[in-house]
Amino acid sequence: MDETFAQDVLEGLSAKHKYLSSKYFYDDNGSRIFQEIMHMPEYYLTDSEFEILSLQSKQIIDTVGFAQPFNIIELGAGDGFKTFKLLEHLVNENVAFHYVPIDISQEAIDTLSDKLLERLPNLSIQAKVGDYFEVLNDLKQDNTPSLLLFLGSNIGNYIEVEANKLLSLFNQNMKKGDKLLIGVDLKKNPLIVQKAYLDDGGITKKFNLNLLLRINRELEADFKIDDFDFYSFYDPDTGDVKSYIVSLRNQKVNIKKLNRTIDFRYDELIWTELSKKYSLEELKELAEVNGFTIQQNFLDCKHYFVDSLWEK
Ligand code: AVJ
Questions:
Q1: CA–CA distance from 18 to each of 30, 109, 251, 263 (Å)?
Q2: Which end of the chain is more exposed for a tag (fewer CB within 10 A), N or C?
Q3: Where in this chain does the entry annotate a coiled-coil region (predicted)?
């Protein structure tokens, strides 16, 4: 049993306002459902970032401006689909670099490496499975300049203090002159954001409820999935999308491995995820408080999303 998972579930479901962390969405099943989300027409984030990397890779790499060779370190690489466009550009231009994707899932890393090598046989990949920070720490010892990639608006999952902790930790592990390309979803027409998270097909609902199935399986609980629903809400002032699981009745759930029975009230919420949207002004602030300067913002044509290039 994963002790941290058990402890976090216990803590979150014992709280006055119940919560579970979205980082636990991504078991094998959850990762597959996330792929489905990325293919939904409503989930504009993937298409927007794909457009940026398809059309502006040359400008991005020119602005990075490293004397070769360098490392490209991708944090939370996932399936690497978007990154392909950037890598393809570099390989075609015969640029000397190593690609170092880091992910916690061995399966994701293996699939990614196979797929990339099939299409870019000359790519130098040094994949790492594990925690970002162990790998990042190694980089400082190395003289090779590094471009860090933190794409997909993963930063949106962190509340302000945690986002600052994470970014300053990246900063501490970078050398002067290293760069960070960070993908961030921008504030926009609220209905567009709302629909990306409250889709008609119920895929995002399935993504959230999968967490209850994971608790059933890994912690021997007896959540009845049909007795829970899903709700998501966008606040255009703060930029917060907050997602919740909703209890459809008064009910008790036994979690055997925690030796606990948890009570749920009718309409009680479990907060599962924050997907924060930023304005460009807020993004500048986020960069600067964490020791970075923005070199350039690369936006898609609709201005829905930005890949922002930061320098230490
Ligand atoms: C992978 C964290 C960027 O918050 O938009 C998609 C995950 N959650 N639909 C996001 C997600 C619901 C996604 N991130």
A1: 21, 33, 14, 11
A2: N
A3: none
| 72, 43 contact by CB (below 8 A) | no
Query: What separation in Å is there between the alpha carbon of 108 and the centre of ligand 1?
Result: 17
Output the pTM of the full model: 0.95
Residues 6+ apart with CB under 8 A from 239: 187, 276, 277, 278, 279, 282
pLDDT tens, position by position, 244-293: 999 999 999 999 999 999 999 999 999 999 999 999 999 999 999 999 99
Tell me, in angstroms, the distance from the centre of ligand 1 to residue 279's CA.
18
> What domains, with CATH codes, occur in the chain?
3-21+204-276 (no CATH), 44-188+278-311 (3.40.50.150)
Counting beta carbons within 10 angstroms of the beta carbon of residue 80, is it exposed (0 to 12), middle (13 to 18) or buried (19 or more)? buried
Task: Read off the tokens for 74.
Answer: 């991708």
Which amino acids bring their CB within 6 angstroms of ligand 1? Answer: 37, 45, 152-154, 156-157, 197, 204, 207, 273, 275
The residue type found at 13 is L
Q: Which atom of ligand 1 is nearest to the CA of 152?
A: 3
